[in-house]
Design a protein that fits this description.
By secondary structure, the protein is mainly α. The chain is built from 13 helices and no strands.
Length: 335
Amino acid sequence: MNYELFCTFAPVMKISVFQNISRWLAANASLTVIAVAVFTFFVPDAFNWVRGNTQTVILGIIMLTMGLTLTTQDFRILAKRPLDIFVGACAQFIIMPCVAYLLVYVFHLEPALALGILLVGCCPGGVSSNIMSYLCHGDVAFSVGMTCASTLLAPVMTPLLMELTAGQIIEIDTIGMFLNILIVTIIPVGLGCFLNYTYSKKECFPTIQSLMPGLSVICLACIVGGVISTVHDDLVARGLILFLWTFAVVFCHNTLGYLMGWMSGRLARFNTAKKRTISIEVGMQNAGLATVLAGTFFAAQPLAVLPCAISCAWHSISGTILAGLFLQFDKRKSE
């Protein structure tokens, strides 16, 4: 009898273990990514396999996990709240590229690092921004709508903006970039949405969805590990100065994104929840996509991936800090 009970509950126990791991990874995404980056710095060969097509497939899996969490109701937001989404999309694709362009000249960045920060600025909003909006009592529906809109616009807007901001540094393969973003973002997200729509009523589907956050963090950590492996020799040769200089640019880009995102919401006369959301959505970029694009289209400039990799980790950390500050503000206000 005990054996029969064990056989019955063992699969459930195994799944619950993976669910707990997934929740832990989602709650400690920044720590996980940083730990992998540090490990790879000392053992650079560990992630040598994360290059080229492998890197693209991994990002596709991240976007698939995003699609598996989206429902038709999420896309209806685009039609129900067109003005909000329009303001958010304009802020996303105007503020971040312009700030990146300004920082390139203020910091006198070398071409490779300039390409990296410009690429981060021209990419759509990050997937984890939805979680941050939820944590700080923002408008989660608006956050999901902005993420959907910026992701759908990315195949056109990212190559176009890169041509405008980085065309003087290097020749931009706009058609190739359009097709790459289409394949690595829109198709996986679309497939995930289709699976969600088709199988959402199946008993096992919520369990599958609960494992997706952890899988997404693991994939992002692998991408960052691949980047550190690529730029390892440059980091060793040029030391801490290269890292700190690049981090300073990423920090300024991200922080100004939060501030100007908030101001754009204020100009649009949004309420507090929507101002918090647009601030987070504008400041947090899909740095994973930027990393893959840098490795694919700027392979001759290996340092281009460094700002993207640093952004992968820092955006999660800063988003958590900002959400905490918003909550502290609410607490003090209620007192």
